[in-house]
## 1
Amino acid sequence: MFIQQKIFQSEKKYKAFLIIYYMKPLIPSHKENKRYLLIQGKELKRNIEKAIIEFSGILGMSKCGLIFISSDLNNNSAVIGINRESLDLVRASLVVFPEKMEVLKVSGTLKSLRALQSRG
């Protein structure tokens, strides 16, 4: 992790220094790879989080890096993003959970999932 430092001076009577730390952007090979899932079920936002926490705990929840991309209340479907390595963990937790949730499609890009979600 590289941290760079910038120092700004004000031109007033009293010289004040403002230090801003920022991180360099990651190169593409160091970014985590995402997979996007199209899921169908009821009350998905609450049930997906609950299913993952019950199945794998808080550590598993943090490893999967769950992100809610979009949801469609008419079709009871949602698109979520997860870490590629935790795909099997998330699928298993959704199957074991008592509420019925079904993974309709897994994709590496959002474009195909959004088209499929809008068709319903």
## 2
Amino acid sequence: MAGNAPDTTSPSFPVGAVTFTNGAADTQSITYYNATTGRTVEADDTVTTVSGTASSTFMVQANVAQNYLTVAGTPQTAGVAFNVTITARDDWENNLGADYTAPAGTYIWTTTAGNAPDTTAPSIGTLAQGDFAVGVATKSVTLYKVEAGVTFTATEPPASTVTGTSSGVTIDPGNISAHNLDSSVTGNATGSTSSPVTVTITLLDTWRNPISGVLSSNITLSGTNSPTINQPSSNTNASGQTTGDLTWAGTGAQTISVQITGVSLVQNDGSTADADGYLDDTHAVSINPPTGSSRLRGGTTIQGGTILQ
């Protein structure tokens, strides 16, 4: 019985007439490309309908290593470790398994992943001879930058041409970081009564990747001294940002806070849940009387001809 190789190459059988001498056929060449066990071969005469007997089973081994199959699942999450597997294969994509002897020397093991916005570099380790068992090496890697199309490449020590590059991997952002070095609340330092103070909420993960698509309903503004609040009405954009505004009737120093609900909010380690559900960063604003206005206090004397605005 025959089957195609993993790369779809089919077996090569003899064509044309077969010559028999004293009841024995001349030697025929058969080439298999699919490495497997339990193979048999049988010769039948299709003209006289003489059926042959199948041979005893035999094994077809993989050929020598010609490439690596490098595989990583997608998508992955920034800051979360995942595995990349490197499998030695022959020209027809058969896995070599125990027939592969990893050579000694310095392997080339690289990724196209970049550094995160906070400059954290990818952690992929090194690839070595001892990493291979029955033709397969598994490497635990952690990436920190949100991006698409990240690949991994493994290559045998020089001057071998055995190499393999993975398909592209997408890295998604981690959880929202409550730390004030990451997510923030920003706006003008001063405002006036009866005029909205607009603030920008920026949501980043621990590695300062922006987190887009956070629902506006998961973001709640609050302020000291009971302001009128227009909560964010838009989900966070590609920069991880959305806006809202607050209006105070009275003057004085005010503080604006942001609560996050319905999604994970973590500390700066990227995994430990935040204790109070609020961003650590707050925004301070000083509310003043409207520009050009005057306030009369008890005991104030108004001179003749004074114009009050």
